[in-house]
Design a protein that fits this description.
This protein is an alpha/beta fold and about 300 residues long. Helices cover about 35% and strands about 15% of the residues.
């Protein structure tokens, strides 16, 4: 008998954790994807819905995923939080979002914590605020006080100019030093298309003691395998999580590239699930069952 259930979903126990995905409400997903594609040199490979994400996870053998939201203006925060409440499940762990111009960031972070969410996502470019800007401090302080993860876009972004440094590695290093109790996850291995700066500012003993972590989305296709392996080991496999950035990249392809790097079994285990299990308090495995296509709800986040 095949190792797959009906519908192509993997059977048995899965452990892999995807630390970077996105999903939108069903009635908003097509519009959101089209709008983002207009500023992007590539096309989405998924439909951007929760059901599409779960199906992609099943195909790739991914147990759980962080689902990132971005509030591009303060008025979106409430609807995003409501969507996260509906989306939250054993497999999907949504990250809400707080805008730096929020009327009361501390209260919003408290609401996010009370909702049982694991953290928040901030994007310095889409939120028009440098990652180390003083306006962000209230978000970082409240998240640290509630034990929430903050995921931050790191490095450049194809929708913005190549000289936009609002998410530069040196700025992220400043945040880590100013907020030593904050658990920070820097996407794209600490700085997309700025990996020399990552090695300069985010590696080494000064930051290894901090709660700074990295995820791999959109890095392995852009770096030679030997450079990827070198940087992973320079930063420390115990500080790195697998991430895909679905629906912009295929989870299975990203996993195959990771597994082709000739890392040790222990290094792969840490990256694929061990580090996520540790910092998010997960059990580390999920007994997969055929997943019905879930609805994202009808209320848009904007």
């Amino acid at each position: 008998m095949s190792g797959r259930t009906r519908g192509g979903m993997l059977a048995g126990v899965m452990k892999t954790f995807d630390a970077h995905t996105h999903a939108f409400p069903d009635d908003l997903a097509a519009h959101a994807i089209a709008r983002l594609e207009a500023d992007c040199p590539w096309k989405a490979i998924g439909d951007g819905t929760a059901g599409g994400l779960l199906a992609a996870m099943d195909r790739a053998g991914v147990a759980r995923a962080l689902v990132c939201m971005i509030a591009t203006k303060p008025s979106q925060e409430e609807n995003i939080l409501a969507f996260c409440r509906r989306l939250k499940s054993e497999r999907l762990l949504p990250l809400a979002s707080v805008h730096p111009d929020s009327e009361n960031p501390a209260r919003r972070i408290e609401q996010i914590a009370r909702a049982g969410l694991r953290g928040v996502k901030v994007h310095p470019l889409y939120q028009n605020c440098a990652v180390d800007d003083a306006r962000m401090d209230a978000i970082y302080e409240a998240a640290a006080a509630h034990g929430l993860l903050v995921t931050v876009h790191a490095g450049r972004d194809v929708a913005f100019g190549p000289d936009d440094d609002r998410a530069a590695p040196r700025r992220i290093a400043d945040v880590v030093r100013r907020h030593p109790k904050l658990t920070l996850l820097a996407t794209h291995l600490g700085g997309w298309q700025a990996w020399d700066e990552v090695e300069q500012f985010l590696a080494g003993p000064a930051l290894e003691a901090q709660n700074l972590y990295f995820e791999l989305s959109f890095c392995l296709p852009c770096l030679p395998p030997e450079r990827s392996r070198e940087l992973i080991r320079r930063l420390g496999p115990g500080r790195i999580l697998f991430g895909s950035d679905w629906p912009w990249a295929d989870e299975g392809e990203q996993l195959a590239q990771l597994r082709a790097l000739s890392l040790t079994a222990a290094e792969l285990a840490a990256i694929e699930h061990g580090t996520a299990d540790r910092i998010l308090g997960m059990s580390g495995q999920f007994q997969n069952k055929p997943t019905r296509r879930a609805s994202n709800g009808k209320r848009p986040p904007g």
